[in-house]
Design brief:
six-stranded mixed sheet; two-stranded antiparallel sheet; single chain; 41% helix; alpha/beta; transcription regulation; Arc Repressor Mutant, subunit A
């Protein structure tokens, strides 16, 4: 037996007794006899060298040492039970854990979940937001939706969905919004521009593609996340820059204006998943995302 782990059968019996506060109920749950559970508890206490339970009325209660071990056992068994339940439901029923940046989740994915449910009801998702790029193992995720550039980790399968297109956007409430109508991009040099730490290169990328000297642009208020940047633009606080799909709905409703449209960058919208994944849901989701992103750009 490994010295780094307790006897696992005994630990299973201990966890059941601690959770149910009864040897008899634990025996029923485990489909063994009362005596078998008692023997497992004695074996565990012998291995620890101290009592883990004390009798309390017709049941049992944990000692301080037992409470400590139960906390660790519950932390191990509870996720294992949940994972086993999902596995027994079958791969077609388990939700797909999809990671994406919070701004993508809030401004693009969530508004389209109803459409996804109607068009692909078999694609049940569990959405996980993170502003940091996922690690090479995509730890904890079945797939990740992101805007990024190659090269990609060798262990990823990568579904390219659409090229990234970015452009300046401004809310009609901003006092200078009318002055941008019909003005050349050089007009931006007169304004302090809203920017975000999560996409520090965005203004430079756009400037290069429209023939502006990036050094001539002046940065104003900064925000930690793209979501807040765009909310500031909607509120009329200045000119921001954003990927086209994230502002398509706002432009369609008039909450934002895009005076110079959008240009492609070297980045791409991609859906990434581990190569070891054999789930057909990955390809099905990629197909739906590709179509939905195309719809976002075609409406502008």
């Amino acid at each position: 037996m490994s010295r780094s782990l307790p006897p696992l059968n005994a630990l299973r019996a201990f966890e059941a007794v601690a959770r149910l506060e009864s040897v008899s109920r634990a025996a029923d749950e485990l489909h063994v006899t009362h005596g078998a559970v008692s023997r497992q508890l004695r074996a565990l206490e012998d291995a620890v060298g101290a009592a883990l339970f004390v009798r309390q009325g017709r049941g049992v209660a944990l000692t301080p040492l037992g409470h400590r071990l139960h906390g660790a056992a519950a932390a191990a068994f509870d996720p294992l039970r949940a994972a086993w339940t999902e596995l027994r439901r079958g791969p077609q029923q388990a939700p797909l854990v999809l990671g994406c940046p919070g701004s993508v989740l809030a401004r693009w994915m969530i508004p389209r979940l109803d459409r996804l449910a109607r068009e692909r009801p078999e694609l049940q998702l569990h959405l996980s937001a993170s502003e940091s790029a996922p690690d090479a193992r995509l730890g904890g995720l079945d797939a990740a939706l992101m805007i990024a550039s190659p090269p990609w980790p060798q262990d990823w399968q990568v579904h390219v969905l659409a090229p990234e297109r970015i452009g300046p956007v401004v809310g009609p409430r901003w006092p200078g919004a009318e002055s941008l109508h019909g003005a050349p991009p050089q007009a931006l040099a007169a304004h302090a521009l809203l920017h975000t730490a999560s996409r520090p290169q965005a203004w430079r990328d756009w400037a290069v593609r429209v023939g502006l000297e990036a050094e001539g642009l002046r940065m104003g208020t900064g925000f930690d996340h793209l979501y807040y940047l765009l909310e500031a633009a909607v509120a009329g606080l200045g000119i921001a820059i954003a990927p086209e799909p994230l502002v398509a709905d706002d432009i369609a409703t008039g909450r934002l204006l895009a005076p110079w449209g959008f240009v492609e960058t070297d980045a791409q919208w991609v859906l990434c998943a581990p190569k070891r994944s054999a789930s057909p849901k990955i390809g099905q989701l990629a197909d739906w995302l590709r179509q939905a992103l195309g719809s976002s750009q075609e409406r502008l």
